[in-house]
User: Fold this.
Amino acid sequence: MIYSASMVVAINYDVKSDFFYVKQLKNLALAFIAFGFCSFFPYKIYQSNKFLGTIMLLSVLGLIAIFGFGKIVNNANSWLKVGSSSIQPSEFVKLSVIIYLSAVYSKKQSYIDNFNKGVVPPLAFLILVCFLILIQPDTGTAAIIFLIGMTVILCSGMKLKTLMKLVSFGLVIALLLSPIVIIKKDKIFSPTKMGRITGFLDPFDKDVVDKEGHQLVNSYFAIGAGGIKGQGLGESIEKLGYLPEPHTDFIMAVIAEELGVFGVAFVIIGLAYIVLRGIYIGVKCKDTFGSLLAIGISSMIAIQTFINLGGVVGLIPITGVPLPLISYGGSSLLLLSISLGILVNVAMFIKYEEKYKKKKEKPVAAKSIKYNTFKVH
Assistant:
């Protein structure tokens, strides 16, 4: 689908038609190695203080480095140039937040309902990275990371009373910051951001349809043209310069146009299976850290999928978030492969634990029983 969706985009960039396809194949090879390594690397090592300190430091430094050495893509300063390639630090921060919050809250189980000692301190890291991403500005990624963090907190074992305190705490901070938002509204709510909201609310408006509503309108045309069976693989019209970013943010619109409802259903069912399987692993895992890791990774894929598809079909404003495992992008594919490798390792730990438990509970052989009875007499 990346090859089909990116052919015209590649020609516009004056490169070969298979440029993005070949590049994604290379990304896939690296991602496969990372997935294999993380599948067999014991996940409990991530819980050590040294590892947590390292990922926290690298995450913050990577986001700060953006402001000095970053590259602007689609009005966001979110990329770092590394040789001939670019990486997006905010993608890897998603996993850093999951590992950090899972480790910290699993260690704080004995006093997790102590608001000042158990709940608030880990939130400082979450708020810091969300703020650094928000000012890039990359609202979509910041929202995903915040929602992932909230999901891990919700599943950490806190009582409802503590969670309500946390919500109240958040509302107080929001009220305190509201005067700053009003004063700086021209900078915070830039014309680009306001345009996305305007385009979302009424994309067919005569003043919007050729500007802010352009993406959503062409996405509708692609989905509508696909129907049940689709136009056929490679036969999309909207990818021929009408639909912006057809190989990244709007790849699902191209899938809908070329493969129809069946193609869309296949992708959604595949992603839903991964998410539900991850939640099942999280519920089954008796280790709190492993359980929170699995749920955090599953929520990351689910939230990102919802935000991407919501933007494509007009349920929410467009945020520029790629579709997990489907859209073009090396950083996103590598992050998801590492995350799924960790998820597989948690599942392997559960299987090992069950197998070891069965061996431990295995009844003693008949000969041994007779021998022991004789010895006692």
Summary: The chain has one domain: 2-158+190-362. The chain is about 70% helix and 5% strand. The longest helix spans residues 251-284. The longest strand covers residues 76-82.
